[in-house]
Amino acid sequence: MVLILLAIFLIAVVIHEFAHGWVAYKLGDPTAKYAGRLTLNPLSHIDPIGTVFFPLMLVMIGSPVVFGWAKPVPVNFSLLRHPKKDMLWVSIAGITANILLAIFLSLLLRIGLFPLNSYGAKFLSYAIVVNLILAVFNAIPVPPLDGSKILLSILPRELAYLYMRIERFGLLILIGLLWVGLLDKVIWPVVITLAWALGAKI
Questions:
Q1: pLDDT at position 67 over 80
Q2: Is 17 designated active site?
Q3: Which of 8, 13, 46, 182 is deepest in the core (most CB within 10 A)?
Q4: What does the domain layout of the chain look like in residue ranges?
Q5: What is the rounded distance in angstroms from the CA atom of residue 59 to the CA atom of residue 89?
Q6: Cα angle for residues 131, 176, 129 (degrees, 5° grid)
Q7: Catalytic residue, candidates 17, 29, 86, 146
Q8: How crowded is residue 190: how many other Cβ atoms within 10 Å of its Cβ?
């Protein structure tokens, strides 16, 4: 089960990162393409800590919310045609990709591609949940998550500069929120509600 969850997670984060790079490329920044990261090849995106160790640790300790990260796709926001506005679309691309993938998987589940309670149906349900976790988790406005860049793109310049000062503490903030259980209490209910709405059997 752990290996299955990690495999699903790897696919989800690769699609997430690819979406960032693809949208950035379409909006004028070829950095990801030149770096060889505009690909769905998992080997180009795996981060040993974020993609393997961290989610595996969360699974082993029984956390209801399992998350992690791939190597971030390099984006040079100054190369975007409209840097501040386009930052929003690049940042929201990964979240959108995971939501769209969850919806697509739910359609496969609803048309009866696999019999109810079969391993195939359970796999699709797990995949829906993992993609929703990635989408909801990344929407949190704490650096370096996508939600922080979405917030930066809409904040006035002065407030954006102040907000950027917490970026170096972002990972510590996230670990602290996880430690006190706040992320579990916020993310998990949202994910469960969305998963039920999409017909996931969990």
A1: no
A2: yes
A3: 13
A4: 2-197
A5: 32
A6: 15
A7: 17
A8: 15
